[in-house]
Specification:
The complex is a heterodimer of chains A (168) and B (285). Chain A has helices at 6-24, 40-43, 51-69, 74-92, 107-110, 112-135, 141-164, and strands spanning 28-29, 33-34. With 168 residues, chain A is mainly alpha-helical. Chain A has one domain (3-94, 103-164). Chain A has a two-stranded antiparallel ribbon. The longest helix of chain A is centred in the C-terminal third of the chain and has 24 residues, at 112-135. Chain A contains seven helices and two strands. Chain B is an alpha+beta fold and 285 residues long. Chain B is built from six helices and twelve strands. Chain B has helices spanning 2-10, 12-29, 45-61, 63-92, 100-103, 265-280; strands at 106-116, 122-127, 140-142, 147-154, 159-166, 171-175, 181-185, 193-197, 210-213, 225-234, 241-247, 256-262. The chains are: A mainly alpha (168), B alpha+beta (285).
């Protein structure tokens, strides 16, 4: 991370946290779909961010969101996990030609199929951990799974919309 | 030593990951449960202020509603206080004998079941008597074998009962053998099995114990059978028994029920409410 892209990154973090805490916290669609758009703060860091840095940042962002949701630890655990998995998922989704030096982690640069599978996988893992920690039992398995799937779609959509409004 | 340092620096990301994951789970499972934890949640003053900011517009819009809710809660708390105080009295007197009117305060009305469900998540029962026969919402309903539910709404000739097989209905109950108190709730799965909660695992419970209604409710007379313990375990939180009972009433074949009219309920409630209004406005006296 070079100093000249440090400030935009800090701004991006603040943007995602403000979005999460002030705007989408109370947003629930059809009683099933919850939005955790703040996941984008970790998912959309540049390709060359080191794994350790991802994990520490993920933990901190999750902790901050947890405080506002009264679920201390749940978001942090989910974020730490997806921050750890992120480099592996990127390798998994590597196009045949390999990644280009000029590629940046955005919808425009990577294209729609890559972007949606990348976000979809990691958001699904995040929500799976989060909701099952909160349900704390397997009694309502189907109900919780439905919530996970609905919320994954919702969060991914919100991240896509943010990408569409992004300036290059 | 050098190899160890090399190993740590190679696996740095994994080690950080494991440590932070353990830390989060520890937060989740322990810190969350401290009743007086005030930093890591919305009771934290700064967090509360930020949330307050984002909620302020919404709050203005729903001020009336909130006010009404608070007033209702206030009334409810006062009512509970008064009831608890009045319940304590009999325990203190040594030669306690119930007044005959109090002892005979429950008057049953027989009614026929005309519709019932047992397979939905929230089950209701319809009976063929209504307000014309003196029934009113809130009255308890039992069958010859045990507890059935509570009247939810009345038309002149019909009434709708929330059955005990309803996700949001709880009945105050006790173990007949030793008077341990708990509450009965349906888990939504099997129409013959309900759960009893809030019984500390350090109290004695045995299989085949009979569970009956407790003395602490307006709706049912005490000692009406609810069911029999068929499963006994410990809840994951390690503090309460996990008790399942087979219902004494077979809902699938239910045909006649008794509606319990507590004749002294109004008197009891009026008295208790006057006690609570006195408490609310001591200056008026």
């Amino acid at each position: 991370m070079t100093p000249n892209n440090l400030i935009p990154q800090i701004l991006a973090f603040i943007f995602y946290l403000v979005l999460q805490i002030f705007f989408v916290r109370q947003l629930v669609l059809f009683d099933y779909a919850f939005c955790f758009a703040y996941v984008g703060s970790i998912l959309l860091l540049p390709f060359d961010t080191s794994r350790t840095r991802l994990i520490i940042l993920g933990f901190l962002v999750g902790l901050i969101v947890d405080i506002f949701y009264n679920t201390i630890g749940a978001n942090a655990a989910a974020m730490t996990l997806i921050a750890y998995l992120r480099p592996s998922v990127i390798t998994l989704l590597m196009p045949q030609r390999g990644y280009d030096e000029r590629d940046t982690l955005s919808l425009k640069s990577m294209g729609f199929p890559w972007f949606i599978s990348y976000c979809g996988i990691l958001i699904f893992v995040h929500h799976l951990v989060l909701f099952f920690l909160e349900a704390s039992s397997l009694n309502l398995l189907g109900f919780v799974l439905l919530k996970v799937v609905a919320s994954t779609i919702f969060t991914t959509l919100v991240l896509l919309i943010i990408q569409l409004f992004r300036k290059e | 030593m050098y190899q160890l340092i090399e190993f740590i620096s190679k696996k740095r990301a994994f080690i950080v990951f494991v440590l932070l994951e353990i830390l989060s789970l520890w937060f989740f499972y322990s810190v969350n449960n401290y009743p007086n934890a005030i930093f890591f949640n919305t009771t934290n003053a700064y967090v509360a202020r930020i949330i307050g900011l984002s909620n302020s517009i919404k709050a203005y819009r729903s001020l009336d509603e909130t006010n009404a809710e608070l007033a209702a809660e206030n009334r409810e708390l006062n009512e509970k206080l008064a009831r608890l105080q009045s319940e304590k009295l009999p325990l203190l007197s040594i030669n306690y004998k119930a007044d005959s009117a109090v002892a005979a305060r429950f008057k049953p009305v027989v009614a026929k079941v005309i519709n019932l469900t047992t397979t939905q998540f929230n089950n209701y029962i319809t009976i063929d008597k209504g307000s014309a026969d003196g029934l009113a919402p809130g009255m308890g309903v039992i069958s010859s074998t045990g507890v059935v539910g509570k009247i939810k709404s009345c038309s002149p000739h019909f009434s709708r009962i929330i059955s005990i097989l309803h996700a949001e209905y709880t009945v105050s109950a006790k173990i007949k053998r030793n008077n341990e108190i708990g509450s009965i709730k349906w888990d939504g799965v099997n129409s013959e099995i309900v759960e009893m909660t809030d019984v500390s695992r350090y109290k004695s419970v045995q299989k085949k114990d009979t569970i009956v209604t407790s003395d602490y409710n307006y709706v049912f007379p005490p000692n009406i059978t609810i069911g029999y313990v068929t499963y006994l375990g410990v809840k994951p939180d390690q503090t309460f028994h996990h008790i399942k009972l087979k219902l004494a009433t077979n809902f699938n074949t239910l045909s006649y029920v008794y509606v319990i009219n507590n004749k002294l309920e109004k008197e009891q409630r009026a008295l208790e409410e006057s006690v609570s209004t006195e408490k609310e406005n001591p200056a008026k006296k």
